[in-house]
Structures are given as C-alpha cells and as structure tokens.
Amino acid sequence: MSTDPEHFEEGVEDDEFIDPNDVYIEFADDGDHLMDEDDGADGEQFMGDDGEHQPEESIVYEDNSMQHFPSHNGSVFAIATHPIAPLAASGGEDDLGYIWDYTTGEELVKLTGHTDSVVSTAFSADGEMISTGGMDGKVRVWRRVGKENWNQWEFLTELQGPDEVMWLRWHPKGNVLLAGSNDSTVWLWQLPSGNTMQVLAGHTAPVQCGDFTPDGKRIITADAEGTLIFWDPRNSTPVFKLTPTDVRFDMDGITSLAVNPASTLAVVGGATGSVRVVSLSKGEVVGALGGHKEGESVEAVTFVELAGASTAPSAGGVVVTGATDGKACIWDLGTMRLRTTLEHEDAVTSLLRLPQPKSHLVVSASSDKALRTWDARSGTLVREHKGHQGPILQAALGLGGGVVVSAGDEGVCLVFPTE
C-alpha cells in the first residue's frame, strides 16, 4: 500500500534544524515537594465546623462552569472541539459519542455503532468530518451534511484494522487520519474514500501516543515498551528508531509526546517520570529533564510561546510537561533548565496552550477535579475552574481559546471560560 502524495507537501526546503551540540545533561529535581495526602481542598471538604466528617452527599460542590453536557452514562474518556463552529465531540464508557453545542449544552448528534468504550474523538482540520475510535477496534467517521449549518451530520464509513484504538489524529492540512493501536500497529487512511494508505509496523507493544509533525511531513509514534519511531508517511520504513537499548533513552515505557512548532524537536514523557528531548534531524537524544518525581507517569506535553524566549529552530522553545505527581513543569529547551513549576493536588491529565495572542497562557486539567489557567511566563495562577465531581480525564480548547471543554470521570462534560 502506498500514500497519495498530494496530501503531503512536496518540494519544500528542509527547515533549519537545531544544533544541540549533542548535549546530554540530566538535571536534578528542583527541590519542589509533593503535598501530603491530607493537604488541600479534598481533605477539607469532608470536615464540618466541629471537626466531624460530613457524609459526601451533604457536600456542596463549587461550580463556576458556563455550560454542562450530562448525556453520557459512564466516564467520558475523550473530548474534541470543532476548529470553527462551537461544537464538541465527546466519547465515553457507554460506547457512545456525541456532537453537542458547547454554548448551549444541546445534544446535536448521537454517534453510535461502537461495541466498547469510545476513547478518542477528533475533527478533521477543515471541520467537515469527525472520527471516533473505540476499544472495539472500530474507527467510525461522520461528515457534515450540506453547507447551511454545522448541526447535521451523516455516517460516512467504518475503518477496519486496529485491534483496539489508543488514539486518533488528523493530518494538520489534509483529510488523512492516523491511529495508534493496542496491537503495536499504526494505521493511516485517506478520507472520504476510507482507503488504507499505510500500515506502519515497527513497534512491539501498544502504541500509546503519536501524531503528525506540525508541518505535516512526518509522523512520530511511541509505545509502552519505550520505543520511539519517526516515519515518513509515504514509506513504511522508519526514518529512525530509538529504543531502550540506548541507555540514554531507557524510559520504562513512553506515555506522552509533543513536537515543537518548527518540527525539529520532540519532547517525550515516560512512565516513571523521565523526560527526554530528541532531535528529529539527528535522530538522537539531546537532553533529559528531571523535574518530575521518580515513578510518576508523564501524562501530557505541550509547547508554549513566551515573549523573550527564542522560538528559532536553534533555540528549541519552551515546553510544559505534566505528570501524575501533580506537577506541570515549564522548561526552556535552549538551556534545558526549569523555568517554573505549576501545582495540582493530583495527577495532571491534560495541558493546553492558548493560541496567539495569548499563547503565554496554559490550561491544565487534573484528577483533583479542577482545571487551572496559568501564565506560563511567571507560573501565576490566572483562574481556577471547578465543577467536576470526579477526575478530569481530558480537555480541549474552543472558541479560539476562549473556552475550555472538559471530560469528567463522573460522566459529565463542562465548559469554562479560560480567563
């Protein structure tokens, strides 16, 4: 099988890649300490004025959300927002997906056909299609009906191949869909035809994370055994592969990754708190970041744009990593040093960077039931978003970064203003 090359840019000169001078430095923890289990709001909510424990049903939960969507019957695992319209697509434990209006909370379309939990939802770059991926191995795609509004969608096709879908990503410019599978394979389809373009076989464990590079030219994937593979989507042979046999890349499994806007660097998070910086031009590790507690999984990585921090390919940029230790660490990749640390009372599950002109703002979601908007320049808390009664499993930005939409383990999606 081969890729239709029209979906991938040809004849573009290679970006200037960073020159990291092959530096590999392990930076120690900055000395921040985790909160004790008894610290924080969760421990206090159950205490009355007389010091006696209150039954949970008597607790009044704070809720500063703008809107809510309670239609799921079970945990909500996935949330995605439309690139133009005020629509969200959620997927859950009830084997269902929904498209709903996050300004009104109105349910628009029920996305059916799965026989197991829907763990990923994703809108195409132009917003004309929506895909859902399930633990049943199915990838189902719907498309918008007509051009009058965004509220009518029809089922398009079901894509076969994966054993169990781990994640879905659309190409940043074209109608090409990428999926990582529990059976160690990576799938690439062309839409709306549904034709399989590539089956990328090189992993030996569940492919837990992956994406297209921002320039759309390459694919990066990583698995539960700690192997990272960089692909040309037109070729089934890896551009390069990093494995735990390289002691500098022994991460006990990879749980998250992100690529910088210049498509020159990847930051990779591990299952035991390790973070590695990889040069995509050289195919090798160029740095290690040691700010998270050992043994705690790094669940989220995102790049941010800060005034005064160089975004040139030679600088690397600024990245935020979030882990189950409750920390979100902000790193300057030009120096490989920690700028500041953001704190939650439980695991950080999602990190989102607002677009320009507010790209210095980052939203973090946590298992502590709260989301927080931070100024990444200083680490200052801008706003706290409360309303969930269970861990927040995923979040997405909408209205050009004006709102954040969150998916809760208690079965409810909430909408908050980011500022």
Q: Key features?
A:
419 residues, mainly beta, Methylamine Dehydrogenase, Chain H, four-stranded antiparallel β-sheet, 45% strand, disordered N terminus
- Please bin the fraction of helical residues: under 10%
Report how far the terminal alpha carbons are from each other: 47 Å
Helix-and-strand structural type: mainly beta
Can you give the mean pLDDT? 87
Pfam families: WD40
Keywords: Repeat, WD repeat
WD repeats: 69-110, 111-142, 168-199, 200-241, 341-384
InterPro entries: WD40/YVTN_repeat-like_dom_sf (IPR015943), WD40_PAC1 (IPR020472), WD40_repeat_CS (IPR019775), WD40_repeat_dom_sf (IPR036322), WD40_rpt (IPR001680), WD_repeat_multifunction (IPR051179)
Report on the structure:
By secondary structure, this protein is mainly beta. It has a domain at 115-381: Methylamine Dehydrogenase, Chain H. The protein has one helix and 32 strands. It has one helix at residues 41-44; strands spanning 67-69, 76-81, 87-92, 97-101, 107-111, 118-123, 129-134, 139-144, 153-159, 165-170, 176-181, 185-190, 195-201, 207-212, 219-223, 228-231, 238-242, 254-259, 265-270, 275-279, 284-289, 298-304, 318-323, 327-332, 337-343, 348-353, 361-366, 370-375, 380-386, 392-398, 403-408, 413-417. The strands form eight sheets. A four-stranded antiparallel beta sheet has the order 1-32-31-30, with no helix packed on it. Strands 2-3-4-5 form a four-stranded antiparallel beta sheet, with no helix packed on it. Strand 16 and strand 17 (238-242) form a beta hairpin. The chain is globular, with a radius of gyration of 21 Å. Residues 1-51 and 310-314 have low confidence and may be disordered. WD repeats lie at residues 69-110, 111-142, 168-199, 200-241, 341-384. Keywords: Repeat, WD repeat.
